[in-house]
Amino acid sequence: MARYDRYGGLDDQIVEDLDIGFSGYNNKLRPDQLKQGVLAESLNGRMGLGGEWQVRKGIDLVAAPFAVGNFTVPFYVYANFTVTTANIARTDTTLTFTASSHGLTTSTLVSLAGLGTAGVDPNGNHIITVTDSNTFTITIAGLTGKPSGTATIGAPKIDEDANVQIYGSTSWSDPSSSTNTYVVCAGNAKAIAVKLSDGSTTDIAYPTGVKITSSVEMIQAFHKIFIFRDGAVALEWDGDFSGTPAFALVGNGDYTQPAKLDATGFTIVNGLATVTVSNTLAIGDTVVLTTVGGSSLAEASEYTVATRSSSAFTFYVDHADVSNQTDTEWTKKVSGGLGFIYMPAPKFGIIHQSRLVLPFDYVTSGSSGSATITNRGIRDEVIFSDILDTNTYDQIYGQFRLNAGSSDFIVGFLSFAEDKLVVFNRNSIHLISGGENPRTATSQVITGEVGCVARNTITQIGNNIMFLSDNGLYSVSFQDLYNLRGDDLPVSTNIENTVSRINKEHVANALGVYFENKYYLAVPLDNASKNTSIIVYNFLNKQWESVDSVNNSDWESHNLIVAGNGSERGVYVVNQQGGVHRLDSRTDDVDAVITQIGSAQKNITILGSATTRMFTAQSVDRKKWNNWDLHIQSSDSNESNATIQAITENIDDTINIGTILEYNGKLLEISEDVSLRGRFGNRRAYGLQFKLDTTQGRPKFRALKVAGAQTFRHSEKAD
Question: Which of 715, 703, 650 is nearest to 677 (CA)?
């Protein structure tokens, strides 16, 4: 309300400015250029449908599947000592050891031996937490009971088969069942499948002698999981959890063209052909009739195996009935080009039109199990597998070269609408149409002005494809049935100051996924070499809403995976030094994470921050800012508190207003909303911003009004 019902020419007129709700943040424009409801900064926040800004939900730990591996310098060598079962207590997955004057310190790596299995084997290297001079604790993921035996505690042991970090991950679910979904993580000595419904784990062995020592890429293709090892023979697992699950090397070495199959019988009854022959064919294989014998089929005709047994296979054919023939000959499809090859040791791949599509950087030769991998020195070619056959590739008719003659190279793929494969090069984007038949497929350039820097940011969202480029996050739009067109400006234009902080030396590791109307972009900011931050875009508001981070320098995102069924479905983050976590999962203000293999779960308070636009009351004049009103509400689950600051410009100053606790007289109770009011004391400034830094809970920042008097309307200098 104004001070007077009318103002004279010499009166200082009261002016007000306010934001009722917030929709996103923008750090490209100056704070005084922002529109109502747009923040200048948002850290660890979300913009609700009601327009309030609120601290994000916490990250929750699903499983920490790997035990601590080899130790690093410095480490400590000391005499072994024993602790009997009577001096060992258990609470959930934590064992408490009592030993007089044990002399250990927190975060020491020790070896544990002599204990019996209790859900998992508790022995091995572990990081301890010291309670006092006589007790210490060890947390062991998967522990279901108190182990028996006498524990021997000593210096850490070198274990060549220990898993020291997670090198790759992917989701997996049985195509024939919707009951369970897993995240499969690749360590250096084995892979582990984590069931998302309960966090239980299953080991999946590697072939004898195989170790993984650098980052790999993994996908589910049909019912299999592939581990691509960039210049090494890929691994495959058939999804079978029975017995002792294990990966195997894919076919490798010189490809042997299939031998002819001499049939002892051939019939056609009601369009179903049956070939009696001892065979190793699979359903979906293509067979070729090489000798027609007494049949009336055409020589070189191709058919698809519908059913098979050890003594026969069948296919469907539009042909009159044929009585039994004994002199036909068959073979699997034979290459019409340079011959078939096995999977060419790729770095990554995708499924497209029932084929596996790979970069064609390498070729294998030699004998199976000890193949020679040859780098072709070509980085702009793709190769398609045979249909429904992930380990057969035609070097001529399944091969495409894109942008030949330039310095461009392939970064990633996306299987788009119908038969279209989008190929992202480093400096260009291409479209391959007709991918159901590589022999007749065609290619075209979508754009030569922008390319992709991080393949795992490529994400389809409706009719748009998002990807990270040198200039920020771009979108390619589906215009009509036949056309894809790149947008003129990056989607990230409004957060250029954030994008400029991305570490270009490590940007290739960036990740992107889409879930529930949000795009999550994990990136290395500033001097980080790993993805320490996640930038969130809200498609409902059409604005960026937050830069998320965990308040721990060891936290990083090695992979983002959308997985799960029903209530389990969400965005899962896998970090190299810990395990599998779910984003936006906890209702409190805590990130429950693992930041080091073998360590205990850490509960880290989320520190949210929101900085408003600069309020100027639509005037360039200097004002005397007088008072403020802040509407804030606590979450449904937590009491809340935050510090409040006002930042003025011309005159530049930071005003420490206080905390919610100080103004309210108590913490903001669960679900309570309150209007806080205060005065500035006529602070002189052109404009001012408010900054809220949360210290407890997940408060909702709903509205803000500031008021002051417009003054200094004469030509003399004001200090």
Answer: 703
Q: Is the pLDDT of residue 544 over 80?
A: yes
Distance of CA 17 to the CA centre of its chain: 41
Q: Is the pLDDT of residue 706 over 90?
A: yes
Nearest CA to 686 out of 30, 1, 244 is that of 30
| Same domain assignment for residues 413 and 507 | yes
Residue pair 221/182 in contact by the 8 Å Cβ criterion: no
pLDDT of residue 326: 84
With 0.85 as the threshold, say if the pTM is over it: no
**Beta strands 24-25 and 38-39: pairing type?**
parallel
Query: What is the residue range of 137's domain?
Result: 67-154
Q: Which of 320-329, 442-451, 491-500 is the most confident on average?
A: 491-500
Strands 543-549 and 533-538: antiparallel
Cα–Cα distance, 36 to 362 (Å, whole number): 55
Judge whether residue 83 has pLDDT over 70: yes
- Do 173 and 225 touch, CB atoms closer than 8 A? no
Q: How far is CA 433 from CA 82, 313, 441, 475, 566, in A?
A: 68, 33, 6, 20, 35
481 has a pLDDT exceeding 50: no
Provide the number of structural domains found in the chain.
4
Same domain, 413 and 536: yes
Statement to judge: residues 594 and 650 lie in one domain: no
CA-based nearest residue to 86, from 94, 78, 76, 96: 96
User: What is the per-residue pLDDT across 598-637, written as a single tens digit (0 to 9) for each?
Assistant: 778 999 999 999 999 999 988 888 889 999 999 999 998 8
Whether 717 maps to a domain, the answer reads: no
Classify 458 as helix, strand or coil: coil
Q: What is the CATH number of the domain that holds 19?
A: 2.60.120.430
Q: 166 lies in a domain? A: no
Residue 509: inside a domain = yes
Contact 230, 216 (CB under 8 A): yes
Peptide bond into 245 cis (omega under 30): no
